[in-house]
Amino acid sequence: MISGCSGGGKSSLLAELARRGHATINEPGRRVVEAELAGDGANLPWIDLAGFAREALRLAVADHRAAQRLRGPVFFDRGIVDAVLALQSVGQGGEATRLARRLRYDARVFLTPPWPAIHVRDHARRHGFQAAVDEYRRLRQGYPRLGYHVALLPRIGIRARADWLLARAGL
To answer: What region holds the NadR/Ttd14 AAA domain (predicted)?
Structure first.
C-alpha cells in the first residue's frame, strides 16, 4: 500500500513501479472524481465527502479482490483504509472499519509525506496544501490504529524513491 499526502507523488511512484514490470492498482478516489466530473458530480469530495468515500470504498474493495488474481506483489495507490478513514472523519466509519480489519494489505504501508515542492492543484485535486497535510495526519495516525506499520517515503526523485521502496519491501 502506498498512501499519504495528496499531491505527494504516489501516482508518479506507481507509474515508475509499473514501468519496471510490477502490478499496480490506480487510486480509487481519483477514479471516482473522474467519473463524477463526467457525470452529475453528486459524489465529488468537495460536494459530498461521505458519498465520495463510499464510492472510493466500493472501488477499493473490488480492487482488493481483483488483486488476488494477479501474480507477484501488487502495489496499490490508496485503498480501503483511506476510504474508511475519510468516512470516519465524517462520523460514518462503523461498518466500513470492520471491513478494513477483515480485508488486509501487507502489514507495511508506505506513506508519502507532505512535500510542498511537488503538490499541485488540478481539475481533480482542488484542495490546497494545508488540506493535504491534514489528510496526511489522519492517515499517519489511522493506519497504525488499524494494525499497519508505517514507513515514510523519502523526498527524493521518482527512480530513487522506487529503488528505496523496493529495497524496503525486499524486492
So the answer is: 2-161
**Which CATH superfamily hosts domain 2-168?**
P-loop containing nucleotide triphosphate hydrolases (3.40.50.300)
Give the global pTM: 0.91
Grid coordinates representing 40? 452529475
Q: What are phi and psi of 31, to 5 degrees?
A: -65, -35
* Domain boundaries along the sequence of the chain: 2-168
- The tens digit of pLDDT for each residue in 104-157 reads 999 999 999 988 787 776 666 767 788 888 999 999 999 999 999 999 999 999
The 10s digit of each residue's pLDDT in 66-114 is 999 998 899 999 999 999 999 999 988 788 898 999 999 999 999 999 8
Coil vs helix vs strand at 24: strand
